[in-house]
Amino acid sequence: MSALDIVRASALAVPHGFFGRAGGRSTGGVAGLNCGLGSGDDPATVEANRRMAADAILPGAPLASVYQVHSPKAVIVTEAVPRDERPEADALVTDRRGLLLGIVTADCAPILLADAKAGVVGAAHAGWRGAVGGVTDQTIAAMISLGATIDHIAAAVGPCIAQKSFEVGFDFPEPILKDDPANERFFIDGPSGQPHFDLEAYVVARLAAAGVRRIEAVGLDTYALEDRFYSFRRSTHRYEPTYGRQVSLIGLPAQ
């Protein structure tokens, strides 16, 4: 078993980490630190992987998560709940110390946020639907409702599919450009002539538009970096039966 691959962001002054696939107990097509409960992997193995990741950030801390549905919905959590009681949402926020927040991704953008001064943190899963729908805006609003201030919120965008790897259909840009014609800057024509979307840059722009002043994007392509990250699109292109998910975690220390 290899060491865990943890990407950290200097923008965040609280315990956190964007995990790669290295380490963990999963085998086969999802070998490594697969943290996706919906991946078809052995549930006990996935839970062991999630515990391993959590202990690398806040040893012994409970891990709160949500049932992700590609929505813009953010929820406030105060405790970890059983798997079948998780709320349907794509972001979660807390001011409870000693509680870890976690989201899983496999090309979508993981976003971790913190107001270290107020003691409020958030984690969001942003596929293109959630990103365009405003998952970052709802996460920030939930943090502010717990006492965070926009001037003190910092955000980091973790490993996700890069523009060079994210070819989309010709009709894909239309609703995004209808929302704001300036969004044209997030598209380029790829080698085949089809558009490519820059999810990471779009998320950064949404965070900035909401007033977040300190934003860090790690710039790691989940599709291209096969040895480091799981990728839904890469697995789909290869007609693989399933794919793993990497986890991203953030929390406030108990003391």
Task: Itemize the secondary structure elements and their pairings.
Layout: E1 6-7, E2 16-19, H1 43-57, E3 63-64, E4 74-76, E5 91-94, E6 100-105, E7 109-115, E8 120-126, H2 128-133, H3 135-145, E9 154-157, H4 173-179, E10 187-189, E11 195-197, H5 199-209, E12 214-217, H6 232-237, E13 246-251
List keywords for this structure.
alpha+beta; 6 helices; five-stranded mixed sheet; 22% strand; 13 strands; 255 residues; CNF1/YfiH-like putative cysteine hydrolases
Can you put this structure into words, describing what you see?
- With 255 residues, the chain is of the alpha+beta class.
- It has a single domain (6-160, 218-248), classed as CNF1/YfiH-like putative cysteine hydrolases.
- It has helices at 43-57, 128-133, 135-145, 173-179, 199-209, 232-237; strands at residues 6-7, 16-19, 63-64, 74-76, 91-94, 100-105, 109-115, 120-126, 154-157, 187-189, 195-197, 214-217, 246-251.
- It has a 6-stranded mixed beta sheet. It has a 5-stranded mixed beta sheet with strand order 1-2-13-6-3. Strands 10-11 form a two-stranded antiparallel sheet.
- The protein is globular.
- The relative contact order is 0.21.
